[in-house]
Amino acid sequence: MMNDKIKLCYDVPADDFTRAGEASSNVKSKLKMMGVNPEIIRKVAIAMYEGEINMVIHAFGGTIDVVITPDEIEMVLKDDGPGIENIELAMQAGYSTAPDNIRSLGFGAGMGLPNMKKYTDELNIDSTVGVGTTVTMKVKMNER
Amino acid sequence: MMKVNELINQCGFEVMNEGNHTDREVTIPFCCDLLSIAMGRMPAGAAWVTVMANINTLAVATLADAACIILAEGSRLDDAAYQKAKEQGVTVLLTENPIFETALMVYQKLHA
Ligand SMILES: Nc1ncnc2c1ncn2[C@@H]1O[C@H](COP(=O)(O)OP(=O)(O)OP(=O)(O)O)[C@@H](O)[C@H]1O
Ligand SMILES: [Mg+2]
Q: What is the value of pTM for the model shown?
């Protein structure tokens, strides 16, 4: 079953917290059905959720493409939001521009991007101010 | 070692949503209200004690693989979150006690 390449595509709606996390949950249950190692699933679920929720909070939603191969899981999250001016700064633990109404929901610790780094084997952020952000993450199937 | 259902009985929590995995082992209590810190630090199988009771709490609990959520200080899920808890089979427990006392009680039961 794991010999094939599986591609999954999701639309992440803007400003909809009731649906944010659905794409990540869906990928999680698909990986579970495929019998992927629970630790790998956890890494993918955490990293993808942080990216997904960032697209809802900081951009206007977007799309997520997930490609699963026997070697790795690749997630590409694309939005056409405001972009990130200083990626190095955004990556710092504790840095957040989340407004108060978002913080009152429990977001805004500035740990989303650090989590994405921590739980993936590769993280690449490509962002242009006023155009949008593409986040590419890879998790290897074999635990390092 | 203790399962979620044993923890419910021994700690006298009110059950807001029983969930589908009450035979799961609880590993450790974990406290944090900031979602991405919880996401990054919560061990799998944790009993997550928090006052944050919205739909994002459910998402974090499921994705980070918590064993159950314990809402402290009398906080309760809103309707949308309650629906999500039922849908996803997440165990959600309630207590009037503060976060620290709740986590301490869980810890003591786990290590009794
Ligand atoms: N897709 C995005 N588009 C525009 N800006 C972004 C995007 N993702 C992240 N950022 C910027 O990077 C900052 C840091 O992101 P990070 O996920 O680490 O923290 P946060 O979302 O603010 O809070 P937390 O994730 O801890 O709830 C954000 O506050 C925001 O300014
Ligand atoms: Mg974030």
A: 0.94
